[in-house]
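request received
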Amino acid sequence: MNRRSLLGLLAAVFALLSLPAAAEEKFIVVASTTSTEQSGLFSYLLPAFKAKTGIDVRVVALGTGQALDVARRGDADVVFVHDRDAELKFLNEGYGVDRREVMYNDFVLVGPKSDPAKIGGTKDIVAALKKIAESKAPFASRGDRSGTNAAELRLWKVAGIDPESGKGSWYRETGSGMGPTLNTSAAMDAYALTDRGTWISFKNRRDLVISVEGDQRLFNQYGVMLVNPAKHPHVKKELGMAFVEWVTSPDGQKTIADYKIDGEQLFFPNYKRSGT
Amino acid sequence: MLTGAGLGDISAAFGAALGMLAALDPRLLQIIGLSLEVSLSAVAIATLVGLPAGALLALTRFPGRAGVVALLNSLMGLPPVVVGLVVYLALSRAGPLGTLGLLFTPAAMVIAQTILIAPIVAALARQVIEDAWREYEEQLRSLRAHLADSVWTLIWDTRFSLVTVVLAGLGRAAAEVGAVMIVGGNIDGVTRVMTTTIALETSKGDLPLALGLGIVLIAIVVLLNVAAYVIKETAQRRYG
Amino acid sequence: MMHGPISILPLVLDHIGYSAGGNAIIRDLSLELRARACTVILGPNGAGKSVLLRLCHGLLQPTEGEIRWSGAQPEKHQAMVFQRPVMLRRSALANIRYALKRAGVPRAERLKRALDALCAVGLEKLADRPARVLSGGEQQRVALARAWALRPDVLFLDEPTSSLDPAATRAIEEIITAIRDSGTKVIMTTHDLGQARRLADDVVFLHCGRLIEHTEAATFFERPVSSEAATYLRGELLV
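response:
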């Protein structure tokens, strides 16, 4: 192999390098959450959007807190998350515009079949959490500023319990996503709060079953927002709004409702024109 | 945490791996292709930069050289996730290089991996070339070869050992997940590579699939290494 | 690079000294080497023979004193062969062409001169063989061919046959003689007295880094001037 052919090879590598990322000009970056992506919704929703508009959607899936931070830095065009308080803060700080409520899914409390906290079949999530705290049954929390985590902490607050008091004994913070947290619960025979979508797709259940579901307080509202072009001029305003418009359009809303796993609908579209 | 992987899971994993490969699943092929593209590109650039740098360091003497060598050696251990974070902050729109719009693209992944591997290539090349220089120095100076001359001569003469060095860099690149996850965003179809897919499937609880992908990844790296080893051995036997 | 009318000789060493690591290896050495055929540097181990060679060739710089060549660009008209031949990882022919390229010989001329040099040492059949798979003797012959192709005014050799068997040694000695006969000044070290007797025209005798004597070969081996040389020639240990 002489010097000339070596240089030729290197030139080829450089040419190859310029290939990635240049391909699709018509795309937006949507910052969303891991639980939403792992539910498989995007694999169903986005091809429909692309067929309608020709726009490619690149989803960066993080925790809600991280997703909003990415958007604050201007690294995304649209946010699609499920933490109303954090979203409103984001909106009021001027980082987002035109927040629309898109759909909701629900959380469920899962736990070991053996039910050490003796929750029984109650539909009352707050009562169930109280029982867990009293019996000091192991509980796995995400502890990662995600929408799910925020919802979980709100419920503890309603129950009047400070889970930090159980830190190090029965309250275990994994600091990770929904999947790993469920893995941990399965392994530790612990209770955990999870969104239904992740639960349905989760394959490593071992002895975990649904302990509480259906409580109104377990409903998880999703919101979509365009990142404010006034703060970040490079944001793809038209393409981003096309996405926001579509998911809140009758067509998009129906597509959301049509998404099922094992015949079960996961997300319930609830966009109301008058809503915030 | 991952106690789900019993013997049953492992055989399921092998089954999954073989099944995916046999079916030539297009999504899998796309992910493999992207992984190779990113890591090979990074290795190519890292080699272009790191080899001459390592060679220069091997051949020159200057005050503080020992410190530079030690620093370079320790840079081999740069934590990928830290490199990812730094590159992310640099490429973010809010960061100094934001206008390039490179974040969440394969180019960003190549940049991050290049930063990771270049010190490895440079440090190992320095060692290889410095060892060779001990043998060659007097003769090359007798022939009045200039520094630049000697650098290229030594790189060429140690090319077989340097192949091993480059492979070490490639192995590191192909195996890391921390940097590409942060700067690439693990976007389906755009920046999702083998390692980030394995991380994703693991977090989804699909352990056999994750293991299967892991087996595919290891197999690819092993194949590359075996091929390079065979080439190196036959060439070495011919050229001495 | 030809043996031009302006040679770089005589070589004058003017009270040179060389110290390293606090030790004086060469002390107050003054010597003049003229364009006479083959100078052999002798002395017990540690006398400084190899260091002296390297000082002359410019691989080391004297810490005291001065080294003076005649003529222009003396560094371009010398070559050196070491005890262990250093072959590049390429063919024997390519090794020689490499040296010629470094010396600025135009491309068109390089191939011919390299082939001629290989023929002169009897290795034309091994021209395309990878140099590093050749035997020790063959490699040393390639090294000599490489040096000879440069047509230097001065050829330094540092114990060129210490690593070789007698057959290879003889082949090397024949080549050295041929090089000397072609007009190149040969300056070599050896610890093989027989070899010194066979090849030397004049002898430089060192001991403990000092020049003890510089004598015509015939005289040196029969009646050396110094008692140290006499001791050495008798085969006794010289401390």
